[in-house]
Amino acid sequence: MEDTSPPFELPRVAVVITCYNYRPYVEQAIRSVLAQTYRNWDCVIVDDASSDGSAEHVRELLQAIGDPRLRLRARSENGGQIAGFRDGFAATDAPFVAFLDADDIWLPNFLLAHLSAHLNPTRTASLSSSDVFFVDSQRTLLASTYVMLRKPRPEPEAAGIGIPAFRQLGAMAGELAYQSDHPVTYFGPSAYGWMWAPTSSMVFRRGALEPVLAFPFRVKTGTDYFAATCAHLAAGSLILSESLGLYRLHGANASAGAAYAGGHVQQSPAYLAHEATMGADVLDYVLAHAERLRAINGRDFVPGFLAQHVRRFGALAADPRLTPFLSSKNRRRQLRKRFTRRVRRLFGWAPR
């Protein structure tokens, strides 16, 4: 009898659930992993020294479920989100890694859709990110898209923006009838700026994420920003237009601030205050990996990225490490700016 099985094995996905004081939500996150239609995964739940009994709750839950693919890693000291990323990443050797915040939920086809995108025959990428449904603490639906996700959207028209029909919500809630198309878009490493949905929407290639998590970043939260930004520089990103998870807004999110009012999620003051530190961390990473990124993407790649990054985070322009990456025109401009600042300070025209 002819062997019709495929000549390869489908890849395993490491799922890392990061939890800090999310006892009311973590079981729903775990059960959403168990419900995945793609079955080749293992999952480690990293509890970051929660004070609300989350670790004990998860331990009892895993014992009741009895699935050997689920493991708990309980930290003795709180290390922040990046510590959870690192511990979970180190606990597995799977070629793909997905992170799920303990207060979020995946829909059943999350892993299947992401693996299908990553294994497409046209473009490989460092990471993928899909759209999300916004829900509140009680899982009441607030919105069906994350506005900052860089997916294809209707172009503005003279009288407004056309909204195409789509099917997904109707398939999940029968009383809502609609049609659906879910394109996947590739953005290469030179595409700059936030283009993804939050942490729970992302699946990384291990090889792209490994040097990122090994880097000594200073910030402990907002890990999805520099994980996605830095991993993207190796091979780009795949953006899935389909909403494949529930992103919960409940007032205790690390990055989200006020109640959802539509459009962009309002960032919390604490998150906005340390954006500059995150930008400096990314700068440090790029400078430390400049030779590798140049070898991957060409000699002009790093200067191009740095020029855009400095425009985004203006305070970084004074960093003398940037000088070798600037064109002679930009070097002269930077020297003039530094000279002007020194003169102003000398004569008391600007605060020291």
TrEMBL record:
<keyword id="KW-0808">Transferase</keyword>
<dbReference type="InterPro" id="IPR001173">
    <property type="entry name" value="Glyco_trans_2-like"/>
</dbReference>
<dbReference type="InterPro" id="IPR029044">
    <property type="entry name" value="Nucleotide-diphossugar_trans"/>
</dbReference>
<dbReference type="InterPro" id="IPR050834">
    <property type="entry name" value="Glycosyltransf_2"/>
</dbReference>
<feature type="domain" description="Glycosyltransferase 2-like">
    <location>
        <begin position="15"/>
        <end position="146"/>
    </location>
</feature>
<dbReference type="GO" id="GO:0016740">
    <property type="term" value="F:transferase activity"/>
</dbReference>
<dbReference type="Pfam" id="PF00535">
    <property type="entry name" value="Glycos_transf_2"/>
</dbReference>
<protein>
    <submittedName>
        <fullName>Family 2 glycosyl transferase</fullName>
    </submittedName>
</protein>
